[in-house]
Amino acid sequence: MEGSNNAGVWRLAEDECWNLLARRELGRLAVAVDGKPDIFPVNYVVDGPHVLFRTAVGSKLADLSLNPFVAFEVDEYDDETAASVVVKGTATRIELQREIDDADALPLTPWIPTLKYHWVRIASVSITGVRFHRAPEPPRYSASLK
Predict the structure, then answer these.
(1) 28: closest CA among 38, 40, 45, 46?
(2) What is the tens place of the pLDDT at every residue in 20-75?
(3) Contacts of 131 (CB under 8 A, 6+ apart)
């Protein structure tokens, strides 16, 4: 971890961010179309500096064709710590058959029994992450009992 502040929050190094992404399989895709945000849960796989997922025809593909700039967030937590990683980048549909075949060989396991024929690749422009210790919130107000 790169550094912390007084609140017990640590910035993750880039390799730690990619390692966290590789350990997980469900993330949140954030898109914006016509100034309106939307978030989709997607299962995914990491392939080098890219995040890949499959989708069916629908709002995700339509949104990405209008605005390919996305954010993708993944988190993990246990009883003591929590972490979050955000990838910002450009999402494009994979269309070359050779690249589709390569993507089909990746270990992506669907979560729901629907057919998804369209692969999407998020090319990372930036990746950031934080880890912090979970603890109760301190008192927000301290009134004098005198």
Answers:
(1) 40
(2) 999 999 999 999 988 889 999 999 999 999 999 999 887 777 778 888 999 999 99
(3) 1, 9, 10, 12, 81, 82, 83
Chain-centre distance of CA 123, in angstroms? 12
**5-13: Cβ within 8 A, 24+ apart:** 7/132, 8/132, 8/133, 8/135, 9/130, 9/131, 9/132, 10/130, 10/131, 10/132, 11/128, 11/129, 11/130, 12/83, 12/85, 12/128, 12/129, 12/130, 12/131
Q: And the tokens for 112?
A: 């729901």
In the chain, what are the domains?
3-133 (2.30.110.10)
pLDDT tens digits along 3-14: 555 578 899 999
Sign of the torsion formed by the C-alpha atoms of 89, 94, 100 and 104: positive
